[in-house]
Amino acid sequence: MAEPASSREPVENVPLGAVFALMSFLCLAVMSAFAKVADGYAPTIVIVFFQNLICLAFVAPIALRHGLQPLETKRVPMHLLRAAAGSASWFGLFYALSLMPLSNAVLLTYSAPLWMPLIGWIVMRQKIGVRLWLSMAIGFVGIVLVLHPSGTAFNIGALFAVGAAIVLALALMSVRWLSTSEPTLRILFYYFLFSSLMILPFAIGSWAAIAATGWAYMGAIGLCLLGSQVFIILAYRQTTAVKLGPLIYSVIVFTALIDWLVWSRTPTWLEAAGMALVILGGVVAVIQWSTRKTEALS
What we know:
single chain, 0% strand, disordered N terminus, 12 helices, disordered C terminus
């Protein structure tokens, strides 16, 4: 879920960038499906830990190939915030997946762009225009429809998914702030390092009894996350985040297809309407928010 630094190639290739971005979000959709199945074989906290550790194992040799100097940073607190928020969002999503349908959990979690302007307004008193307020309202109506598609009892998993969306919004904002001074590789290295260290004390006593199947699923989850990071970096080398940002909602389409193909589940018409509203509101929010001037925090 990392957004690359601001350096761009001189010649844009929007179609190729879109293909790379779609591949990135397809990896996230497949990863979510693996996480839903892996819940039966391993605790959620262990799944989150090993997905980060696997990515760190691949990123660290590249980040350290020129020694420690390229990793020097004055923004350790912001890297820590990014790691904490990102890890919490994965935990919330993976736990929600154990309690509710795949497409609903992913939809609620990836409503994060709807929360970003609200966080900016509350924390930094940033102004929100009428169009942005309207897009957020549309998206939140969609969330309500997905939460109560048929008037059934509230699913506690939805609470974790919405919480995951809020901390994911904070994680995305922290990446934006970091990218004003930090290169992509440094952001990724410190994210996977700090998140692994944060989760280790909670996960260390839980993996002794994991079966071989569980390890296989966790390996697949880690590789999918790594693939999503590689593809999104390639995407942003072709064009800007502003142009590709709305494609984040393709992950909802991909997970709905997986839900249908693997679990034979089709959304109700209220769920489908809610998904459409969340995507509509989110796309407008992404466009409006991405065009704002990036705030630099020291």
